[in-house]
Every structure is written in structure tokens, then in C-alpha cells.
Amino acid sequence: MAQFVWHLQRLLDVKKKQEQATRLELLHLTEQVAQVRVQLMMRQQALTTMLESVACAPAHERMCRQALAMDFAKGSQARIKALEKEVEAVQAKKRAKTEFLLALKQASEGLERLRTNAKRRFMKDQDKKEQTMADELSVLKYARRAVLRDVSERLMSEPLL
């Protein structure tokens, strides 16, 4: 029996590898978002802690701490805004990668359907060929038996010399 060979198999393999690579990139982007969010939460927590410490400080220390806290808050707010922008940028990259992955997946699924249909047609053709060969063998076998029967009947009906 002939082996099934599909002419678009290389393309399907390339699409599958691209899909795997894109999934890996998406995983890295997800990790990156998580890391930036952790940094963002740490900055926000540090700012909250600093402001709470100023609020809880005795009156005579509060003025000194308040000036330091305001400087710290300015720097922290700038860094928090930068981290928020970074999260948004990475999220945008992640959305783009997700859309690309979906397009790759649809292409792969379409190729898989084409491959399945091609294999089904190939198997159907192979079955037809095998059936044709089996029919031909049956006809030959029947013809051989008929010829042998005819020859043996003639030999039996003719007198021996």
C-alpha cells in the first residue's frame, strides 16, 4: 500500500512551530506584566507606608518627616506612573501576540482540515484500487477455474487412445 504524502505538510509544521514560539513569547510577556505589577504594588505600598508614618508621627517630628515624605511621594508618583505605562505597553504587546496566535491557530486548523480531507480521499482511492485489484484477481481466478474445468471435461469426454 502506498504511503500518504501531503504536499502542504511543511507549511503545517512551520505554522505549528510558529504557534509554539508565539505561545512562549506570550508566556514571557505574561511574566513581564506580573513582574512590573509586583514592582508597582511595592512602590504603592512604600508610599502608603511612608504617608502613614508621617500621619502617626508626633507633632514636633511631623514637619521634618512631612518634607521628606513629599519629596519621596513626588519620586514615587513619577515611578508609579512610569510603571503603569510599562504595564499598559506590555499588555498591548500581549494583546497583539494573542491576536497573532489566534490567526496562527486558525491557519493551522484550516491546514489540518485540508490534511484530513486529503488523507480521507487518499484512503478512499487506495480502498478503490485494492478493491479493483481484488476484483481482477477474482475474475482471473474464476477464468482459470473455468478453463481448467473446460479442459478437464474435454479430456474426460475424449476417448483414450
Blueprint of the fold:
Layout lengths: L8 H48 L2 H99 L4
Helix pairs in contact: 1-2
Broad shape: rod-shaped
Could you report the average pLDDT, rounded to the nearest whole number? 92
Write down the secondary-structure element order.
HH
| Helical content band | over 70%
| Helix count from the secondary structure assignment | 2
Task: Kindly describe this structure.
This protein has helices at residues 9-56, 59-157. With 161 residues, the protein is mainly alpha-helical. It has one domain. The radius of gyration is 40 Å and the shape is rod-shaped.
What is the compact description of this entry?
The chain is mainly alpha-helical and 161 residues long. 91% of the residues lie in helices and 0% in strands. Helix 1 packs antiparallel against helix 2 (59-157).
Defining traits:
161 residues, rod-shaped, mainly alpha, 91% helix
